[in-house]
Design goal:
The protein is mostly helical. The protein contains eleven helices and three strands.
């Protein structure tokens, strides 16, 4: 029990429990030794020293900045040194977020492939090929009108993924891209067989559509929802007018 409360100074390291309580005495020129109650939270002190776990907000900033730098300078010139300087981190901290530059590129490209595969999953499984193809085009145009830097990087670096990424990562990307291309070819072919589409070269048309989509993030800057809706309508009509039988 403390009998001299007027001489007690409380040094509270934290207000959070659980905590460890220790007692110390501080000498004073003006009076007797003063008891000091020190309350410590070991968990919080450990966190303060650094756990090595990167904060999600900084990781997102690193990713966004990396996409911009790769877009502006190209993959080879967008070094980890440049990235660290731009985001204001030392390289040691940067490597806590991403172990290598190729890890950033793979994540950026993998996420775009996943997003595209999710889009084809939203295309109706049944119905007229014309309606299904229009739905696919509209979904893709709407997607490429967002996240310009990441999409530009995807299309910009895709031809060189075998040089920039580990073999396993490059093969994985190509395998998933093939799923998208197979779906699109089958849809175009179904339209030709049904007489809805003109007698067209499926591969040429598919890669032409991809080329249109690839260039959108280079020039389109949304002025709001209305501008994006207009873009979707115009490009969907442009593509469909080129393939539908008249």
């Amino acid at each position: 029990m403390l009998t001299e409360p007027c001489h007690i100074r409380y040094m509270i390291k934290t207000m959070c429990a659980p905590a460890a309580v220790t007692f110390q005495h501080s000498a004073s020129r003006e009076g007797p030794a003063t008891p000091i109650i020190i309350i410590r939270n070991p968990a919080k002190e450990t966190a303060a020293k650094g756990t090595g776990v990167p904060r999600p907000s900084r990781r997102a900033e690193v990713r966004t900045t990396a996409a911009r730098l790769i877009r502006e300078h190209g993959y080879d010139a967008a070094t980890m040194d440049l990235l660290a300087d731009t985001v204001g981190l030392n390289k040691g901290t940067l490597y806590h977020y991403y172990p290598s530059k190729s890890a950033i590129l793979y994540e950026l490209m993998s996420d775009q492939v996943d997003a595209t595969l999710e889009l084809i999953g939203r295309v109706p499984r049944t119905g007229a090929a014309t309606d299904r193809m229009r739905a696919l085009i509209r979904l893709q145009v709407e997607h490429v009108a967002t996240k310009q830097d990441e999409l530009v990087v995807f299309f910009q670096e895709l031809p060189w993924v075998e040089q920039h990424l580990d073999e396993e990562q490059a093969v994985d990307l190509r395998r998933r891209i093939d799923r998208y291309e197979k779906f699109t070819r089958q849809l175009l072919s179904a339209g030709v067989r049904a007489g809805e589409f003109r007698d067209l070269n499926v591969n040429m048309v598919m890669y032409s559509i991809i080329g249109i989509l690839a260039y959108v993030p280079n020039w389109f800057r949304s002025g709001g929802r209305k501008a994006q809706e207009t873009l979707v309508d115009e490009l969907a009509d442009f593509v469909m007018n080129g393939i539908v039988r008249r």
